Amino acid sequence: MSTTKLRINISLPATERNTLAKLAHRDRVPLATKAARLLELALGLEEDQIWEEVASLRDVKKARYLSHDQAWK
């Protein structure tokens, strides 16, 4: 049966492998599902850090502000 999802192989040290297995068991999900969910969360955090950097560069004195209506024209 084919899938549209990308499959990747990763090698984990024993400590991370054991932790991942315990988390998957705790949440009653397959190991791959738990790994995918944790990767999704990590990517979200990474994205948040990038947007924080962009916002901090724009947050300066005398910054030009737009109203909500102006921003969405």
Task: Offer a quick outline of the entry.
63% of the residues lie in helices and 0% in strands. By secondary structure, it is mainly alpha-helical. The longest helix is centred in the middle third of the chain and has 28 residues, at 31-58.
Write the layout of secondary structure elements.
Layout: H1 14-27, H2 31-58, H3 68-71
Helix pairs in contact: 1-2
Could you explain how this protein is built, in words?
- With 73 residues, the chain is mainly α.
- It has a domain of 46 residues.
- It is 63% helix and 0% strand.
- The protein is built from 3 helices and no strands.
- Helix 1 packs across helix 2.
- The protein is elongated.
- The model has no long low-confidence stretch (mean pLDDT 92).
Structural class: mainly alpha
Give me the Rg, rounded: 20 Å
Oligomer: single chain
**Shape summary:** elongated
DSSP strand content: under 5%
The total strand number stands at 0
Largest sheet descriptor:
none
Could you list the spans in which at least 5 consecutive residues all have pLDDT below 50? Answer: none
Query: What is the terminal-to-terminal distance?
Result: 47 Å
Number of helices: 3
Mean model confidence by pLDDT: 92
Q: How would you describe this structure in keywords?
A:
mainly alpha, 63% helix, 73 residues, single chain, elongated, 3 helices
